[in-house]
Amino acid sequence: QIQLVESGGGLVQPGGSLRLSCTASGMTLGTYDMSWYRQPPGKERDFVARILSAGGSTNYADSVKGRFTISRDNAKNTVYLHMNSLKPEDTAVYYCQARGSYFFWGQGIQVTVSS
Q1: β-sheet bridge partners, residue 93
Q2: For residue 78, what are the β-bridge partners?
Q3: How far apart, in whole angstroms, are the C-alpha atoms of residue 97 and residue 84?
Q4: What pLDDT digit, counting tens, does each position of 25-35 carry?
Q5: CB burial string 32-45: b at 16+ within 10 A, e below
């Protein structure tokens, strides 16, 4: 059974940092393009960042460029989202996605940026 499990979310003050993790089971994460998406309250789910399986190229939404970094550790079957200089508008449920022949989603994790 393929499963993606996010962790590392929580409450952080503006300007703070968090690292989200997405650990895969039942699949070899290194063969998938991995992405993070987020869904703010009352809004649609939007793309945040992606790292490709081949070559490790990355791309980011304009709203997070220079603040967020996506990385992967294939040996640990895990992808990360390092989030710095967090803003209240980063508050959302964050989801990881694996894209191969099929799409797989994690269950999501809450990130709240508030003083």
Answers
A1: 39, 110
A2: 23, 73
A3: 21
A4: 998 988 999 99
A5: bebbbbbeeeeeeb
